[in-house]
Design brief:
The protein is of the alpha+beta class. The protein is 63% helix and 15% strand. GO terms for molecular function: hydrolase activity; RNA endonuclease activity.
């Protein structure tokens, strides 16, 4: 969601600049800053940004630097000011009151100061609109470039998880044999081999192995990883969707860790968790 776009151009006696910045956010937070003369165009700008940007904390700034020409702003009606001022002096003398600040008082009277409403011509707006769309295009291109880097990194993290997953699959058959030998040795040392009920031993062993079986977790984890990569290749904005998938990946990894009962397998699980945490961090910046 982070991005930056800038466009500038000259028109008549002014220089127009449009700058767009964005940071991560769950929703679109759009902050606009522009000259008052363009305030009537705010809705148009907001609608375009809402459609093209979708999500992020966005700051859009429009500046106009004029080089000479007509100076616009407040004007003073000198005739009316003089009229009010002379009346104040006359009243002040008749009352023998303090004569300080009479001019300041006269300036506050109605219609003494007139504020000229700023406006822009349609040609000026059309020119600014071109600058705005160019800045928006630059902004989107920046995010596309950043997105390509993020996509490669996310794909790498999923590939690393699948690599750890493959190591777990290779280790699992040996894990079952090791557990069986461990239990058999424990019983042999505790009660002696001749005192072991082999049928009962096999039943208890099957029950225990069933409890730590990770066949379902492996199937779901592989499916979630494949789905993540498919979603990553989609042209649509799927940041939230990939966030949900990563939660499901984490659930299967955690279950594997709980059932591992093997130090080496736990190391592979920790490796998967580390890669998943990096994925979650990166997804904060994906639309």
């Amino acid at each position: 969601m982070t991005g930056y776009g800038l466009a500038t151009a000259d028109y008549a006696n002014a220089k127009y600049s449009v700058e767009i910045k964005s940071l991560n956010s769950k929703f679109l937070e759009l902050n606009l800053k522009f000259p008052k003369a363009f305030s009537e165009k705010e809705l148009i700008i907001r609608n375009i940004c809402s459609k093209d940007i979708e999500r992020g904390k966005v700051s859009l700034s429009i500046t106009v630097e004029r080089n000479g020409g007509e100076v616009t702003g407040a004007t003073i009606n000198t005739a009316l000011l003089s009229h009010y001022y002379n009346q104040l002096i006359a009243v002040n003398e008749s009352l023998n009151a303090n004569s300080s600040n009479l001019l300041q008082t006269a300036l506050t009277f109605p219609d003494v100061i007139n504020y000229k409403e700023e406006s822009v011509s349609e040609d000026e707006w059309n020119h600014l609109y071109k600058v705005f769309t160019q800045a928006l295009s630059n902004f989107n291109q920046f995010r596309e470039d950043e997105g390509a880097v993020l996509k490669a990194d996310l794909a790498l993290r999923i590939t690393n998880i699948l690599s750890y997953f493959k190591s777990v699959e290779e280790l699992e058959p040996r894990r079952i044999t090791a557990i069986r030998d461990k239990f058999a040795q424990f019983l042999d040392d505790a009660v002696g081999k001749v005192n072991i009920d082999q049928n009962r031993f096999e039943q208890e062993l099957i029950y225990y192995i069933d409890k730590i079986d990770i066949t379902e977790e492996k199937t779901r984890l592989k499916s979630h990883c494949d789905y993540f990569l498919q979603t990553l290749d989609s042209k649509e904005a799927n940041g939230k969707k990939m966030g949900f998938i990563s939660q499901e990946i984490g659930r299967e990894i955690n279950t594997m860790g709980a059932k591992a009962n093997d130090a080496q397998m736990q190391q592979f699980v920790v490796g998967m968790k580390e890669e998943l945490e990096k994925i979650k961090e990166q997804l904060l910046n994906v639309l």
